[in-house]
Amino acid sequence: MRDRTRGDEDVPGPRRGGASQPSTTPLPITPDAAPPRATSAQAPPAGPPAAPSAPTATAALTATDARREQRRKRRRRVLMATTIVGIVVLVGSIGTVSYAIVSNMADPGSAAAPPDSAPAPEAELASFPEDEPATTPGAQPCTVVPVMSSFENADMVADLAAAYNAQPRNVAGNCVTVTTTRDKSGIAASHVAAGFPTLSPDAKPTVWLPDGSTWLSVARDEGATTLASGTSVASSNVVLAMPAPLAEAVGWDQKPPTWAEVFDAAADKELWNELGHPEWGTFKLGKTSPLVATSGEAAMFASFGASAGSVADLSAAEVADSAVVEQVREHELATSHYMATPEHFLWHARQAEDSGGSSADFLSAVIVDEKSVWDYNRGITSRDGVTRVEAEPPHEKLLPIYPSDGFYSADNPAIGLTGEWVDPVEAQAATDFIRFAGTAQGQSAVRAAGYRDLNGVIDPAIAGVSDATASPAGGIALPEAEVVTAVHAAFPEVRKRANVLFLIDVSGSMDEAISPSQTKLTAAKNAIALALDHFTAGDRVGLAAFAQAPDGAMIPGQVSAVGDIGSTRPQLMAALNGLTSMGDTPLFQAVDTFTAQQAAAWSSDRINAVVVLSDGENDTPNAATIGAEQVLENLRALHHTTPVLVFTLAYGADADVATLQSISSATGAHYYDATDPTKVEAVLGDLVTSF
Burial code of 419-456, b = ≥16 C-beta within 10 A, e = fewer? Predict the structure, then answer.
């Protein structure tokens, strides 16, 4: 049994001796025709089809067609299920009424298709039950229900927790407090599968509420054997978001494209020039990593589906088809780079506008959820997915575009976890919170947070800001578990390859101890070694380090040439292990020198980047070097010709955060915060999802 007095970083819980039923506040906000199917098999000859040569061929064909038709019917049924909610009334032992809100979107592929003869049901809007809180709160100490969300839906989950906590609750004689934490979806799935080994029992969640049910499939594939099916509490469609002028120029504001047309446009380097807008450069398509974010998964599902001939009917066999894989690999070449959350892309789009340019300087389109479009259009952005900045709405709004051959929906399933850290009372309290999410009061909180409720209804005022379509046609269910697993397994083979140099500060300050057994340098080397596991054969990776010697020279410089890590990994690891600390910190000189070197080897078919890890300010007492303004000017110049992304990681409390942020921003890359040096492994692991 856990200690019921703990709190939480997002929605604070009570401590022993506190108020009997505390309320919780939400997170503050500071300031036409289907394309031909790709196949590795030879095309059949023209003319009438010949009779099958053997009964087995007929049987195989029939079975394949039957499976495809079953998937079509299931998806049609699921679309209707987004507006039909079953409410099962359960009378609890404590005299209150509980409801189970059932949505077939909560667990892809878990339900059987309707009979062939069954007509499609008429869409009906459900009437949500009223919440029935306790008359008086239960006794102290309160049962704490920790809920772990994704980054994308964290605000909505916090609002649900706040609404639940605002009323008295009594479960098994105790008051209840719901707290919230967040993690990236893919990382959370791995933690769920492993049972949260790095967390104490008090810190482990009782409810997991990712923004997409695909992550249940991922967790199960990684070993979660007792994970229950989820209960969808909200939805947000995954759309193609474009700055309005760009959408209008290509005509997609009036006639939505197919996904194949999206990927074709992204591969057309002359598109904007031919449409009279050379100032927009090439088509820049932004995607999150499918290994950590639902929108990234949806982008990959769409790419595989478009390549196979049907986004709505993608199968695991098609994901493995060599011709499909090759087409998806071609699609990925148009990706600028990957990021961990949609907020990362939108932050940079807003920064491009605020610096006097246009959001088109950073992106032409990005695949995100509707909620993210609403946030951006009302002036809310986030550099890290946690800290929110509120400003005036942008001059160039984003338009959500719903591709004509289908779009996926993030279905936000709530799952009560059953680990040994969850006692029966906590499980009962978790069920009560999930019940609340489906009540009129819970669904009101869902809509107010920018999400669609279980009827698919979005708040009209929010739709007005985000330009979301009230009832868009073409929604499709997330793929079945075997497709999700296949796409995750295929991503390392199809993703755009990297051309990246790790650039490490090895000045004397890296000798500082951060634990009895580690200095900053040893911890950084360990983190880099783990991060290198992300890269596979075909990725070009190198290593350089910088310090200033007494004679003013920058040392040691390049220690492992940029090369195919499939063959150079041993040399790269040896060079990494051999790094020692010395001298001062020629940060500006190192960034300028090695970014120019990477630019000279620039390739349009790769993500060209430098990853800078530094623990201090530029400090060159033995010889003058290039200044900050000149470095930034040089970086901006390269960005318009041979763009190299310079990702920066502030390492330790003395790192020059402002300078590192300006360096990354000048190149359209992201800044990462490891000012708590004990977190460098996790932060660097997050960073490499950009590749």
Answer: eebbeebbbbbbbbbbbbbbbebbbbbbbebbbbbbbb
